[in-house]
Design brief:
single chain; 545 residues; alpha+beta; Methylamine Dehydrogenase, Chain H; Immunoglobulin-like; five-stranded mixed beta sheet; 9 helices; 29 strands; elongated
Length: 545
């Protein structure tokens, strides 16, 4: 228990973990709930208007309303404060387990104004001649100011004094020396820039700062540019360790401070370089990137080829089914109808005497012949690609069949080197061509029609352009006219072969229908690399010149 009276006549009583203030009839208790986070209150001291309390976990000062605590978890040298003296100059001297602590007046006010900041203080310990640490559990002051200005402190090993007016100050910053760099069991002197072996990732830098006053209190801070975000504070340690370094040029900077905190800001530097191995070099990274791109391209090509194979298989199944139907019609229905026609012809020859019946029979036979011709035409339509030699040939015949040559000028052209096309793909393209040319002949009122088949390295393009009235944009936007399925069928056929169908109005008048099918899907021959196709195109142009 401690009891003190301040200049205002208030009585302060320290009791365990709390402090009680008695001001006349008023009583007030301060504890951990009221910012007195000291643990057990060990000592109290009063100097003028300041009331101090020291305890297990730091130092507190009364600011007129409450106690402000400087906790020892942020300021370790304030742990277990057992003696407090404020000198006439306003400096505070503390007797703690760390030794004797001096905090100057200006720093003291700043510390209590910003309790979360670091406190600037000077510690006197065994290296300064302090015998032991502060006496604990005495329940009384262990620090006192004598009439001659000396300060006396009670420690576990005796009594010590210090004269604040005769303190020495080391104003000389220590020289900073980087001794060596150690890596892979080899030591490199720090006199010149160092080039380490390829693949080096771990190293150790040894340094020092000679000081003849108190060498153990020399403090360091260093930074490896490009690795450390800021300055590293290793305390008194004289080695720096780095692991996982990458190839490159590095600069190590070092500064030191003496026992009184005077820093050598010029410091010292060490430059070293770690050359890259082949697997850490840019050529290797570029090679990996190129390999990754190749793998992605191969994966994309395989995927596209698989999709093309599925589309071609599905279209071949449809084509085979159509050919089967054509055979059935030819081998059954048309043959049967042809046989009936022959029988009725024989009967008609025996009915010459009955003129009206004979004439009706001949008319019926003519109708039957027309049915057979129409059936054969239908069979030809079903199997027309099987007998064709090229897409150009079939498209030309289709244009001549659907458009009147005397009224509409038709031009069919080919771009690029002609290649073999899968029959199923060509058949769908012909169906789209039929519908497009039918629309031209019926609705466009065109005088010229241009059909272009472009064999590109990346895609097969079929383009039909007329100079007619042009299709209305709203019809294209709606995908067709209600009750009509021409445009719908064209889009469906293009979708079956994973093609892109584009219908646009030409600025000069007319309509352009364009179908684009990927080369991997359209061409039956082996796909050529793009670079080979470009080379052949250049060669063709040169030969043409």
């Amino acid at each position: 228990m401690q009891m003190l009276r301040d200049g205002a006549g208030r009585v302060w009583i320290a009791e365990g973990v709390r402090i009680e203030m008695v001001d006349g009839p008023t009583r007030r208790v301060f504890s951990a709930r009221n910012d007195l986070a000291l643990g057990t209150v060990v000592v109290m001291a009063i100097r003028g208007r300041h009331v101090y309390a020291g305890g297990d976990f730091g130092l507190a000062r009364f600011d007129g309303r409450r106690f402000v605590t400087l906790r020892s978890d942020l300021h370790p040298f304030l742990s277990r404060t057992a003696g407090i003296v404020e000198t006439s100059e306003g400096d505070l001297w503390l007797n703690t387990v760390a030794g004797v602590v001096k905090i100057e007046s200006a720093d003291l006010d700043d510390a209590f104004a910003h309790a979360g900041r670091s406190v600037k203080a000077r510690v006197f310990d065994r290296d300064d001649g302090m015998p032991g640490v502060a006496q604990q559990d005495s329940r009384s002051q262990t620090a006192m100011e004598a009439s001659d200005g000396r300060l006396w402190f009670v420690t576990r090993l005796g009594v010590a004094w210090i004269d604040p007016k005769r303190l020495s100050f080391n104003s000389l910053p220590p020289p900073v020396i980087i001794k060596s760099l150690v890596s892979g069991g080899r030591t490199y002197m720090a006199a010149t820039p160092i080039q380490l072996p390829k693949g080096t990732s771990n190293l150790q830098i040894e340094y020092t700062a000679p000081s003849l006053s108190v060498p153990s209190r020399v403090r360091f801070r260093y930074q490896l540019e490009g690795v450390d975000d800021g300055w590293v504070d290793p305390g008194p340690r004289r080695e720096a360790f780095y692991t996982g370094l990458k190839p490159g040029s590095y600069r190590f900077r070092l500064m030191a401070a003496n026992d009184d905190g005077v820093w050598n800001n010029t410091g010292s530097t060490l430059e070293f370089e770690i050359p890259p191995t082949f697997f850490q070099s840019w050529p290797f990274y570029l090679l990996c990137a190129a390999l990754a791109l190749v793998l992605l391209w191969v994966g994309y090509s395989l995927r596209l080829r698989a999709v093309a194979e599925r589309i071609r298989a599905r279209m071949n199944e449809r084509l085979d089914e159509r050919e089967r139907i054509a055979r059935e019609l030819h081998d059954t229905l048309l043959q049967s109808v042809q046989g009936l026609i022959m029988r009725f012809s024989n009967i008609a020859q025996d009915m010459i005497t009955i003129q009206p019946a004979h004439r009706d029979m001949l008319d019926a036979l003519d109708s039957a012949d027309a049915v057979v011709v129409e059936g054969r035409d239908r069979i030809h339509e079903l199997r027309r690609w099987s007998a064709a030699r090229s897409l150009f040939e079939v498209v030309t015949r289709t244009a001549e069949r659907l458009l009147l040559p005397d009224k509409i000028e038709v031009r069919v052209g080919v771009e690029g080197l002609q290649r073999e096309i899968y029959p199923a793909i060509a058949d769908e393209l012909l169906r789209i061509t039929d519908e497009a040319l039918f629309n031209v002949s019926r609705h466009a009122h065109a005088r010229k029609v241009s059909i272009t088949i472009a064999y590109g390295a990346e895609a097969l393009v079929l383009r039909i352009i007329d100079d007619g009235t042009g299709i209305a944009p709203e019809i294209v936007a709606q995908g067709g006219v209600a009750g009509h399925f021409g445009l719908v069928g064209m889009r469906e056929r293009a979708g079956k072969i994973s093609g892109q169908l584009t219908i646009t109005t030409v600025a000069a008048g007319g309509t352009q229908v364009e179908v684009k099918v990927a080369a991997e899907i359209a061409y039956a021959d082996r796909p050529r690399p793009i670079w080979l196709a470009l080379w052949r195109r250049i060669a063709v142009k040169r030969n043409g010149r």
